[in-house]
Structure formats: C-alpha cells, structure tokens
Amino acid sequence: MQPRCDGVGDYTRLLASELIRLGHKATIISLRDTFIDEEQVCKQHEGEVEIAVLRLASKTKFKDRMERARGWIEEFNPDFTSFQFVPFAYDPKGLPFELCSRLSFICKGKLHIMFHELWVGMNEGAPIKYQLWGLLQKLLIQLLISNLKPQVIHTHTQAYQVLLNKLGYKAQFLPLFSNILLVKPEAVKIAKGGYLHELSFILFGAIHPKAPVEEFANEVREYATASGLKVRLIIAGRCGAEQQNWERVFGSVGAVVDTMGEQPPEAISKLMSEASAGIATTPLALADKSGSIMAMKVHGLPIICVSAPWKPKGIGTLKPPSGVTEYRKGNLTECLSAQASQSDAAGHKVVAHQFLSAIQGNV
User: Fold this and answer.
1) What structural domains does the chain harbor?
2) Which burial class, exposed, middle or buried, applies to 345 when counting CB atoms under 10 A from its CB (0-12, 13-18, 19+)?
3) In what order do the strands lie in the sheet with 277-280?
4) Rounded mean pLDDT of 79-95?
5) pTM value?
C-alpha cells in the first residue's frame, strides 16, 4: 500500500477516493504490507481527498493481523466489504489458503471480490509444474468464494470473466483504469499524422520475457531507415530483469535508449504525451488487465503488443482490445498506422460509478 509502488494499491486508493468524493465513506486495509516493518495507521491522499488506511506489516503474525483487521472493520461497520484478490500479494507462492479460509472471520456487511489475477498455468502449452500449481490456485479461488459467498464478483479481462463463469460463478466485467492521470489533455494524439524527425517508443512498467524483441527492433530499424527517421526507445518505471535485454537489442540497431527508471506520475504523463507509440509486453489476451496499457490509452498512443505467444486454454476467440495491435513479423507499418483509442480507457470516476451501480443493486 506504498503510494506509487503498488499497482493494485494505487488502484484501490483511486477508487476509494472517488467513492468518498461521491459522498460515501471508505477505508482501506493492507492485509500483508511488505513495505513496512510494523503496523501503520495513516491518512493517504488523492488530490483533496483523505483516506484512512490501516497497514499491517507482513512480518506480523497472521493471527494478529487478522484480529487487528477484524477490529478495524467492526469499528468502521461497512455496508459492503470489497476484497481485492491478487494471490501473490498475500503469499510468496500465490497460495494464501489460510487467508482465504479465514477472511469470513474479518469481513462485515455484504461482500465484493475483484479478481485482479486468477491462476498460473492457464495458457496452452504451460509446463506441468505450472498447471499443477494453477490447479491449487483454482481450488483456492473456489474455497474463497465458497467461504465468503460474495454478492458481487468483478474482474477486468474477458479471459478471466470466461474462466470464472466456467467455474460456475457469475463474474461481471469492471474495466481497469489508468493510475497515471493525463496531465495535459491538449497533448493527446488521437490521430497522429506522420513523424517529423524521430520515431519514439515508450515501454513502461514490468517487461515480460520471451517477447520477439530482436525481430521487432530489426523491423523498426528498416522502417526508420526507409523513412529517414531516428529511433528512440524510452524505458520508464520498474521494468525488471528483462529491461537490459531491450536496452541491448535496441542499442544494437542504432536506437537512442533513454532509461528513465521510476518517475513521478506527472513525468510519466509527459513522456507518454510526447512519444509516437507505446510498447506493451503483456499478452494480447490479458491486455485489459495492464495498467501500463490503460495509461497509454489515456494518453492517446497507438499501442503495439510485442509479447511471447500466449493463449488461455479452453477459451474461444476473444474480442481484441481496441487501440492495441499485436506485432507479427512484417506488420510494423500496420501497428504504427493503427488508430489510437481512448473510448474504452475508462477513468476512475467512470469505474467508480459502475462499481456503485453493481453493489447498490445488492444492498
């Protein structure tokens, strides 16, 4: 729940702030906070809105954290308790069975679950180890829903919605919103006509492995040479170990590589507003769960999905997300000329209204 260091934490804070702005009361509990060594009761802010937050350190015994959370919730006395489900946030192996079996102990009022993640090994060709691991996580989800009996279940990808429905649970779609707000709306480039001197790409956030980066970079070089353009790759945020590979490959084709590291949201917004296109390494089937992709949409960027092949098992054809084009060898021109889209880049205000509509029908 450390601001700007935890994507789901930022999501929760923005959503809670908008609910408060709309006249409701909301508080947040971080059940296993890895950024602190001891409990913190604090006020966090989004703009002028102040949110009471209970942060429970991951080092604290599980039983003590649950007792503290129960007392906090009882004192707040909510009509609805919303659980943000991210398995690896609650257990290093993504198997928080103890938590899921005990959540009903601390919850009060009616219940809502947002599934930000489901299970590993859901893709075609996944190693047996990950399939078995994923089977345990699937059982955990069934345990969670069985114990909590939530009135509302949400997720923000088509794939996850289909998989939850196949398990027999009615999951509604609640779109993800960008945690990076647009600083200068006039800078948005919904339809950018050509490039003056430079073709610049921004790669923001975690970079997934096994993407066809060499193939993509070589095609970028050919396109730029034929068009008389320089190439720039901007890498921003906490990108992980794969960042060095992208730096090396793009450097080898003559691109200027700017490694920016972590930046405040205003700086990220400026970088996105000035870029020609965004690059995402999240598989296309999971594009709707990527905060980086949502941020690029908000900033009017055409988004190129450069990822390893990945398709969830047991699901038919999914509707491709608007504004995102999957890179395949030979289609760079198509990717760059694709129409950027803000139409489904719902802001946190829109999502807050959709959230309220779903739970108010169950109060």
Assistant:
1) 7-176+348-360 (3.40.50.2000), 185-337 (3.40.50.2000)
2) buried
3) 256-261, 230-236, 198-204, 277-280, 303-305, 324-326
4) 94
5) 0.90
